[in-house]
Amino acid sequence: MHYTIGEAAKRLGVAPSTLRYYDKEGLLPFVERSPGGVRLFRDADFKWLNIIECLKKTGMPIRDIRTYIDLCFEGDHTVAARQALINKQRQAVLAQMAQLQQTLSILDYKHWYYEQAKALGGCGAMGTLSPDAVPEEHRAAALLLQRANKE
Amino acid sequence: MHYTIGEAAKRLGVAPSTLRYYDKEGLLPFVERSPGGVRLFRDADFKWLNIIECLKKTGMPIRDIRTYIDLCFEGDHTVAARQALINKQRQAVLAQMAQLQQTLSILDYKHWYYEQAKALGGCGAMGTLSPDAVPEEHRAAALLLQRANKE
DNA sequence: GATAAAGTTAAAGTTCACTTGAACCGTACC
DNA sequence: GGTACGGTTCAAGTGAACTTTAACTTTATC
Predict the structure, then answer these.
(1) Distance CA B79, CA B71 (A)
(2) CB contact under 8 A, B114 and A82
(3) DSSP at B39
(4) Which residues on B lie below 8 Å from A110 (Cβ)?
């Protein structure tokens, strides 16, 4: 059983042009063609497409994803290199998550801030609040917004 | 005390051209000018720049950040709208973190997979592994890579 | 075999977020 | 006041990741 590019695109939730672009960039060396030149996506190919989707979600650029795919097709002597690449991306994801966690704490503080502002009838009244009126769980975030940067 | 655009850029760890770009896009309506037209960044302005940096880290586009800044300068009647915007972004961050968590589990599985491949002397041998040779903690991730998409 | 829908390529266009270049101006120091 | 450094604007350029267009071919159905 096989899928045309339109069917595969629908299954993946992307535009057919996106898959053609990926192919042109060398991300889909595994996709075969019909005698007439039409791309044939096999079930097994979706395993690859899922990996590509996963790496894309980590923010990895197309070029680096290609490097990984290329390594996969170069045989067993690249296993260590592939693992290293996966580990590097794992570290990048952990860093992103830590960053998002900090960002989230700031958004939570802002939510609290506006809740107070609504209660006090405006942002002007917020200035009159003593610094220890900020609940403990928002102190760190409040500081992040005020602090001097990268000094 | 005030900073020139170059000093402010250094403190924030960005290029001066980036700040000029943000200004042109309406992200810095609070920055004043010298009589000669030179931008003067005050200490208070860095509070704003930190918020911009924070929103940018959530992946919010410049246009939407501008909307938020604009709301802030429209007075107290926009407090609820600002809070709604912050909440929306909070949800977006939570979704991103959930996505990264899933991605991380796949990268962890891949790490395990290559560890096995190294031990067995190649990826070919991995096919001979029975499905329940996959440790419990990696089963879900392995499924994510095999499963049919968006059906 | 005709037709329509969907496939193919190559090249150009789009959007986003900056960056660079050209020409010019403001500020600080000697 | 002259010089150098860094500021200003506007327009054009960049790179990433697609998308669109044009011209043409393949494939499925009648």
Answers:
(1) 8
(2) yes
(3) E
(4) 83, 86
pTM over 0.85: yes
Chain B hits for A86, CB-CB cut-off 8 Å, are 107, 110-111, 114
Q: Is any atom of strand D within 7 angstroms of residue B39's beta carbon?
A: yes
pLDDT tens digits, one per residue of B95-138: 999 999 999 999 999 999 999 999 998 888 887 887 788 999 99
User: Is the CB of B32 within 7 Å of strand D?
Assistant: no
Kindly report the CATH number that applies to the domain delimited by B2-74.
1.10.1660.10
Q: Which nucleotides of C are covered by protein (CB under 7 A)?
A: 6-10, 16-20, 25-27
Containing B2, the helix (H) or strand (E) segment is: strand B2-3
* Nearest Cα to Cα of residue A20 among A35, A37, A36: A37
Q: Which nucleotide does the CA of A14 lie closest to, via C1'?
A: D18
Structure tokens at B28: 């810095």
What is the domain partition of chain A in residue ranges?
A: 2-74, 94-150
DSSP secondary structure string, B107-150?
HHHHHHHHHHHHHHTSSGGGGGS-GGGS-HHHHHHHHHHHSPP-
The model's confidence at residue A151, banded by pLDDT at 50, 70 and 90, is very low
Q: Which residue is nearest to nucleotide C6 (CA to C1')?
A: A6
Burial letters B57-85, b for 16+ CB under 10 A, else e = ebebeeeebbbbbebbeeeeebbeebbeb
**pLDDT one-digit tens code per residue, B1-46:** 899 999 999 999 999 999 999 999 999 999 999 999 999 999 999 9
